Amino acid sequence: MKIVCTGYGILAPKTKNVDEYLYNLKNGVCSLEVVDQEGPKGESNILGVVNEGLEEFKANKRINRLPKVTKMGISAAKEAMKSARINIDDKKVGIFFGLSLGSTGERILRDGIQFVNDGDYRKIPITYAHYANYHSITSSIAHSIGVKGITKTISTGCTASLEAVEEAMLYLKSGKIDVAIVGGTDSPISKITTYSFAKTRVIPLNQTLGEGAVPFQEGSKGFAMAEASGAIVLEREEDAINRSADIKGEMVDVVSNNDGVYIYSLDDTGEQMMNALREVTEGRRPDYINSNALGIKLNDQIEKKCSELLFNNEIPYTSIKSMYGNSFGAVGILQVISSLLSVQNGFIPPTIHTSKEGYETMNIPLETRFEDVNEVAITNHGYGGNNACAYVRRHII
């Protein structure tokens, strides 16, 4: 049984929709920015901030009072539904959204904790409990697009939206649902996340866009935190064909696992990532790898190891993270959508800014490669040790 994508939507830094996303990917446009005075000692940091795309919600008081992360998810899901041109009234529908930090960056949540510490009960907002509850985000997205069926929130770190796809595919194949709206949304940027990641030295403080948050580059000090949301519509192939849907591509498989190491340790072997990628590509040859690499040396070295041992450095490896940063629970679905756009439009997006220092043996496109793309493998790694690898390809009846 084939599972196909019939619609997609996105909201990301300097990117209000899929058309803008396609343009930026094809042209290697960086959506990140250097923000001064963001670090714990007044350092600059590299961030991907969503400043546009939510204007339509300002006039709707019910939606406007929701967290930013929820409004971003609603925006992406609405575009995906419109793209799919699907009527879900008579169908069994499931919505599956991946989150990592959810509303952690919201002022209501941060201030609420301070009010509790101060013993100031009167200042706790009535909305606080929903801001603190991850599943309220998914439930609000479901309500806004008219889904009353299965509603699931997956929170496995940066692999969350890929694992949401994995779960949705199981539900579709079992026949429990007919349509899946699958996505991820995260808005992690705040002082608390900046300071905590600064403690572990994985963010690019006091680096330029050419130096920091650059995948496959020895001198990069870390990744760029970013906000984003993305969503796709998945259906069984026969259902999509029967309604004459515009099929964007086939979602072949998702494989996930965990490193299985102590939470305060790191797995520098990359064994489990390699196992997941080996399994998802078994018997297949991708045209390129849409890589997890994000500018952290350990993670990028694991990608290098996979390239060498699994593909003899022959398969192109690229990363969109120097364009869009790491949007935590949303990043996997952004990689899925970018891979589908590659298949549809015949190009491999570049890894911008990198000098390839330390990664010279890898096949890394530094400029956009315009060529036929039929199959793409995706790699993802999450805080907490989860790995997820996905495989998409051109739909052929």
UniProtKB/TrEMBL annotation:
<dbReference type="InterPro" id="IPR018201">
    <property type="entry name" value="Ketoacyl_synth_AS"/>
</dbReference>
<dbReference type="Pfam" id="PF02801">
    <property type="entry name" value="Ketoacyl-synt_C"/>
</dbReference>
<keyword id="KW-0808">Transferase</keyword>
<dbReference type="Pfam" id="PF00109">
    <property type="entry name" value="ketoacyl-synt"/>
</dbReference>
<dbReference type="InterPro" id="IPR016039">
    <property type="entry name" value="Thiolase-like"/>
</dbReference>
<dbReference type="InterPro" id="IPR014030">
    <property type="entry name" value="Ketoacyl_synth_N"/>
</dbReference>
<dbReference type="InterPro" id="IPR020841">
    <property type="entry name" value="PKS_Beta-ketoAc_synthase_dom"/>
</dbReference>
<dbReference type="InterPro" id="IPR014031">
    <property type="entry name" value="Ketoacyl_synth_C"/>
</dbReference>
<dbReference type="InterPro" id="IPR000794">
    <property type="entry name" value="Beta-ketoacyl_synthase"/>
</dbReference>
<protein>
    <submittedName>
        <fullName>Beta-ketoacyl-ACP synthase II</fullName>
    </submittedName>
</protein>
<feature type="domain" description="Ketosynthase family 3 (KS3)">
    <location>
        <begin position="1"/>
        <end position="394"/>
    </location>
</feature>
<comment type="similarity">
    <text>Belongs to the thiolase-like superfamily. Beta-ketoacyl-ACP synthases family.</text>
</comment>
